[in-house]
Amino acid sequence: MKQTPTKLPISLALLTCVVCALGFGLIALWVSDHQVRYFDQKIITDIQQLESPAMTRLMKSFTMIGSGIPVVIIILIAMFVLHRVLGHRRELLFLAIAVLGSALLNTVLKWIFQRARPEINRIIEANGYSFPSGHSMTAFSMYAALTFLVWKHVPFRSGRILLIVLSSLLIIAIGTSRIYLGVHYPSDVVGGYFMSGCWMAACIWFYQRYEERINVASSRRR
Asked: Which of 14, 49, 68, 145 reaches 20 to 30 Å from 203, CA-CA?
C-alpha cells in the first residue's frame, strides 16, 4: 500500500521525540549524579577565555533576543504575517502552543531539579534555578517553530537551507551566550536543547496528524 507524503515526516517526528527525550534523560541523570562537572568546566573555560568588551556586548545582544520582550515582539510579528499576509490561523495556535508550552515545561523542570546557577565569573545577574536553560529552550522552540511554518513558503532549496542555517546559528548563539555570561552550565544548555527538541517534535507530530485529519475530512466532503 502506497504511503501518503505525510507519513515519513510524522515517523521522523516521533523518532526525533524519542531520541531527544533519551538525550535529555541522560543529561539529567549526569546532572543529578554530579558526573557532568568535567564537561561543564571544560566548555566554560573554553568559552569564557574569549572574554572581551566587544564579545561581551555581542553575547548580551544574543541573550537579549532569547527571552522577554524581544521574544514577544518576534512572536507577534510572526503571528501578524501568518494571519494577515499568509492567511493562516491554525499555524497561530501551533506557534503559541510551541513557545508557551516550552516556557511552562521549563518552569516545571527547573522546579524538579532545582540546580543552582554557576557562581564563577558571572558577568550578568540571573535569578531562579539553572537546569535546564530557559533561554535555550525558548530560543530552540521559537526559531524551530518559525522555521517549520515558514519552510513550505520558501520555493527554493537554497532558501530553505539558508533558513535552517540561520535558525540553527541563532539557537546556538543564544545558548552559548548564557555560558559566556556565566549564568548557565553547558549541560543546562544541552539539556534545554534536548528537551525543546522533544517538545517541538511532539508538537509537529500532533500538528501534522491534525492537518492530515482535516485534509481527509475535506476530501470526503467533496
From this structure: 68
Nearest to 31 by CA among 134, 138, 130, 177: 130
CB count within 10 Å of CB 220 equals: 7
The span from the CA of 176 to the CA of 62, in Å, is 9
CB contact set of 55 (below 8 Å; sequence gap of 6+) = 180
In the chain (222 residues long), the average pLDDT of successive 10-residue segments reads 44 85 92 83 89 92 86 85 72 88 94 89 85 93 90 82 92 94 93 95 87 68 62
- The reported pLDDT for the residue numbered 219 is 64
What is the rounded distance in angstroms from the CA atom of residue 143 to the CA atom of residue 66? 10
Count how many Cα atoms sit within 13 Å of the Cα of residue 48 in the half-sphere of its side chain.
20
119 vs 11, 22, 30, 184, 213, CA distance in Å? Answer: 42, 29, 20, 9, 51
Q: Are 216 and 158 in contact (CB under 8 A)?
A: no
Measured CA to CA, the distance from residue 65 to residue 193 in angstroms comes to 16
- Neighbouring CB atoms inside 10 A of 47's CB total 18
Contacts 24+ apart (CB under 8 A), 209-216: 209/10, 210/90, 211/6, 211/90, 212/4, 212/6, 212/10
Amino acid (one-letter) located at 151: W
